[in-house]
Amino acid sequence: MFKRIANIAYKEIVQLARAWVLILVIIGPTLELALLAQAVSKGISNLSVAVVDQDRTQASREIAAALDTDKDLNVIAFLDSPAQMDHWLESSQAALIVVLPAGLEADLTSGRASPQVQLIADGSNNMISGKALGAASEAINRWYAGRPAANAVPLPGIDVQPRANYNPTLGPAYFTLTAQLGFMVYQVALIVAALGLTRERELGTLEQLLVTPLRRLELIAGKAIPAVMIATVDFFLMWLLIVWAFGLPMHGSFLLLLALSLLFIVAQVGWGLIVSALSKNQQQAVLMVFVLALIDVSFSGYVMPVDHLPPVLRIISQLFPLQHYLTIIRSIVLKGADLAMIWQEALALLALSVGSLGVAVISLRSTLE
User: Fold this and answer.
1) What are phi and psi of 213, to 5 degrees?
2) Are the CB atoms for 52 and 81 separated by under 8 Å?
3) CB 21: neighbour CB atoms within 10 A?
4) Per-residue pLDDT tens digits of the chain, which is 369 residues long
5) What burial class does residue 279 get, using C-beta atoms within 10 Å of its C-beta: 0-12 exposed, 13-18 middle, 19+ buried?
6) Could you say which DSSP state residue 318 is in?
7) Structural domain boundaries in the chain
8) Nearest-5° angle of CA 357, CA 359, CA 362?
9) Is residue 94 within 8 Å of 50, Cβ to Cβ?
């Protein structure tokens, strides 16, 4: 009995290894765990900060330097006026804006008032914004505690006023719901497209389709269109659910979000068709989709920010549509961004859509010949 069981197990392993599925199943989870472990061990650091220095005195410069020397913060720009803040936050160029008011040094020196320093974070990612607000408050308080009182005048202190745009309460729901929306659309488009031709192979009807007057491209399009339609319907239903049932704010254009979602779905259907071309049966297709999902999650910013990946992996992450789509969802839904603000992500999705469909057509045509 044990010998028969061992023979069956050996046969299954050989079949998986021949299809490269076994190797992918081993590498995928290992890669994801390595990336997550690296993110957890290093923590969230090097957060981009833009400073609006309206005082332009030694005290304001010292505060900016204190922010820049904090291990978790990185001052990347000095803005000319508060009017520029919205652009920097909407485009995610800065995780935090620090506004140093005019008269800051004079108030500290005279002791007649407490200057108000505003900290404005990008609340679309509650983990990053919470970390940035906390680190900036601590840096300012450390600087204040180490500053001697001028002429023995009691220091009035600094009134630090933290605020998070797009997510005032810094609750996790906004970040989680937008991530889940993108990931569920990703899964539906990928799995439906991946199972299309493999199901025909298992049922023995693929050969019948090939002898019909259908052209190869027509067969591929016929398999792709239902996947696009199903994923689009799922997107619409899930969007209604998170907006109307869970109260997710919709600050941007739904039509823009829908158009870019269709672009993302097409890109994922292309990946699904590639999986369908490489898979001999539905079991292999499901396993490959599972592995792709693990890799996509690792590189998409779904769990950890893409900016915290190593430089080489950060470049590789640009090849994964989910990474761009999650940025698009959060920018449109939470920030009210228009196409001018997210054109780079939209262009990346367009290029990846064309590329994945092109590879899928070549792979499927060579497989069906």
Assistant:
1) -70, 0
2) yes
3) 22
4) 666 666 666 665 565 555 555 555 566 566 656 665 655 555 677 889 999 999 898 988 999 999 999 888 999 989 988 888 888 888 888 889 999 988 888 888 776 677 888 999 988 888 888 888 999 999 998 888 877 654 444 556 788 888 888 888 888 888 888 888 999 999 889 888 888 777 777 766 666 666 667 676 777 777 788 888 889 999 999 999 998 888 888 888 999 999 999 999 999 998 888 888 777 777 778 778 887 887 787 777 776 677 767 677 778 778 889 889 999 999 999 888 889 889 999 999 999 999 888 888 787 766 666
5) buried
6) G
7) 2-40+172-368, 45-165
8) 105
9) yes
**Contact predicate 171/126, CB 8 Å:** yes
Where helices occur in the chain by DSSP H, the ranges are: 2-18, 21-42, 58-69, 85-90, 104-110, 126-145, 173-203, 206-210, 216-240, 254-278, 282-300, 311-316, 321-335, 343-368
This model's pTM is above 0.85: no
Closest by Cα among 247, 271, 221 to 334: 247
Q: Which residue has the tokens 């899930």?
A: 238
β partners of residue 215: none
Q: Alpha-carbon distance 329 to 318, whole Å?
A: 16
Where do we find the tokens 């998986």? 16
Q: Which fold has domain 45-165?
A: abc type-2 transporter like fold (3.40.1710)
- b/e per residue 142-179 (b: at least 16 CB within 10 A): ebbeeeeeeeeeebeebebebebbbbeebeeebbebbb
Exposure of 245 by Cβ count < 10 A (0-12 exposed, 13-18 middle, 19+ buried)? exposed
Q: Kindly give the pairing relationship between strand 116-122 and strand 96-100.
A: antiparallel
How far, in Å, CA of 49 to CA of 96, rounded?
A: 5
The Cα 305–Cα 35 span in angstroms is: 11
Do the beta carbons of residue 217 and residue 366 sit within 8 Å? no
Task: Supply φ then ψ for residue 55, to 5 degrees.
Answer: -95, -40
Residue 26 sits at φ, ψ, to 5 deg, of -80, -45
Q: For residues 331 and 92, is the Cβ–Cβ distance under 8 A?
A: yes
Please name the residue that has the structure tokens 């969007």: 239
